[in-house]
Amino acid sequence: MKNHLLTAWIYIRRSPYQALAAVLVMFLTFWVISTFVLLASGSQIILRYFETRPQISAFLKDETSLEQVEGLRTQLEETGKVQEVKYIDKKEALKIYKSLFAQEPLLLELVTADILPASLEVSTKEIDYLDEVVVILQGSSSVEDVVFQEDVADSLQQWTITLRKVGLGLIAVFSLVSVLVVLIIIGIKAVNHKKEIETQRLLGASGWYVRMPFLLEGMFYGGLGAFLGWSVSYLILLYSSPFLVEFLKEIPILPVSVWFMLSLLGAELLIGLIVGFLASFVATKRYLSQP
Amino acid sequence: MISFEQVDKTFGQLVALDQVSFEMEKGELVFLVGQTGAGKSTLFKLLLKCYSPSGGRIVVDEVDLNEIKSNKVHLYRRKIGVVFQDFRLLPNQNVLENVSLPLRIAKTDPELIEKEAEEALELVGLRDRLQAFPAQLSGGEIQRVALARSVVANPEIILADEPTGNLDIEAARDLVGLLKKVNQLGKTIIIATHNFDVVNEFKERVLCLKNGKLVSDEKNGKYRLK
Predict the structure, then answer these.
(1) Which has the least CB within 10 A, A11, B26, B74, B190?
(2) What is the mean pLDDT of residues A107-111?
(3) Distance from CA of A199 to the nearest CA of B (A)
């Protein structure tokens, strides 16, 4: 293995510009992968945040009794589609009102607990269940009015799906380009070493023996590209963290867990090594077809 | 040890070997002579199983080469040492690394590799040139390094394809002398050449090919241009 590593290193050093091109293309691919994985997981957290917030407010009629409220709560929970049902009585509604309008004493003076309605704050397990729950609430004789934020979560979900599609498309294109570039570069090197390959074959070298330095070279490009792509995207994330924290406010997206980033690095290194290996394998296959 | 039984090799319409038959005993040294295009290289490539015969049978050490599967060819080749006409030393490796290549390929114990490579270089008188690179060697030295590489893994058979082709008569004599020395260690050797001075001097068995046919097979033979 030491000899194969040495030979691979000599191959790399002898054509530094080809090596640079291969590493740069791999870097770009993995930078795009890292960026989209971070964006996709971030948008997923944001979506989950909105999904788990109370999405439906059902304002109750004044004459609604606690038994009726409990009956409605049970009816909602039995659907299995409800994450949480919270009863806000008139006093609590006033508290919320006061906290919302703490800066406007005139508005506070005009309102008492009696004029605010009690309500049920409902969050669903999936955004798709909103309609069904709203129908149940609207059908209840205890409910005066139903307000729900379908549009926000819905458009956020659309954005997340679009982001994933664009990300997957870009990743597919960059991955294809990376494989082709490594394939071409290793192919050129195999042609340059054609006589050396023939000599080794005639001296009894197996296909794997001859192929090994090329495979190691491809894996080096893949591994280094993956590491650089991950590093740059992580640095950008760390650099932009203060701004993101300010922008996203209470949405708990940052800091990104170190374990998540290390797992991403591990997965990308593995993919890089496999892509480099496969591209080199294909590139050298035609030169080893003869025994 | 080596048996050719009515071996044919054709490439499309071109007949490279035509009904060639001969046998060689273990430990024999044979000169294979003939003009360019006579079929010497084809015969060597058939022996190395670079391709299969179009007809007939080649048996080496009781193994029919037609029966060797393609994924086992490399193991068969390890029984054969080769001196190539164009040397084929790896330019980016020094003498010691070049000579030890067959041992590395055969996954020999790393502790033995250097020792055995040095012994092979001792045999050809180049032990003091271990660290030199091919570009720093003379033609004769390169050919001797190639010879050391062919014997280092202790193969039963050595094929030398025009080893004297680029050498003056003195260097050619020295090289064939070294091959004779290796032959005396019990190795079976085939030397392809058209250097009749050398062939006539060593008086060994001579197989003569002409247009793909084996036209003569003489013990203590001479190479006569006809």
Answers:
(1) B26
(2) 76
(3) 7
In chain B, % of residues over pLDDT 90: 35
Residue-wise pLDDT for B182-198, tens only, equals: 888 889 999 998 888 88
Query: Cα(A93)–Cα(A102) distance, rounded to whole angstroms?
Result: 14
Closest-CA residue to A146 (of A212, A268, A54, A83): A54
Q: Report the alpha-carbon distance of residue A133 to residue A147 in Å, rounded.
A: 12
Distance CA A182, CA A23 (A): 9
Task: Output the average pLDDT for chain A.
Answer: 85
Q: What is the pTM of this model?
A: 0.70
- Identify the DSSP state of B60: E
CA end-to-end span of chain B, whole Å? 30
Question: Cβ separation of B50 and A290 shorter than 8 Å?
Answer: yes
pLDDT at A150: 64
Chain A interface with B: residues with Cβ < 8 Å: 3, 10, 195-196, 198-207, 209, 290-291
Nearest to B56 by CA among B32, B30, B22, B24: B22
pLDDT, one tens digit per residue, over B161-178 is 888 877 777 878 888 888
Closest CA to A182 of A18, A33, A9: A18
- DSSP per residue, A209-224: HHHHHHHHHHHHHHHH
Q: Tokens 């030199």 belong to which residue?
A: B132
Question: What pLDDT score does B226 carry?
Answer: 47
Q: Are B205 and B183 in contact (CB under 8 A)?
A: no
Residue B106 reports pLDDT greater than 70: yes
Q: In angstroms, what CA-CA distances link A229 with A221, A222, A251, B190, B201?
A: 12, 10, 27, 57, 68
Mutation target for A interface from B74, B87, B96, B108: give the one with most A CBs within 10 A: B74
Kind plus residue range of the DSSP H or E element containing B31: strand B29-33
Contact A204 B101 (CB under 8 A): no
Cβ atoms of residues B205 and B221 within 8 Å: yes
Contact A200 B101 (CB under 8 A): yes
Angstrom distance (rounded) from CA B99 to CA B94: 9
ipTM entry: 0.86
Q: What residues of chain A lie within 8 A of the CB of B74, using their CB?
A: 201, 204-207, 209, 291
Cβ–Cβ gap A203/B105 under 8 Å: yes
Q: How far is A3 from chain B (nearest CA, A)?
A: 9
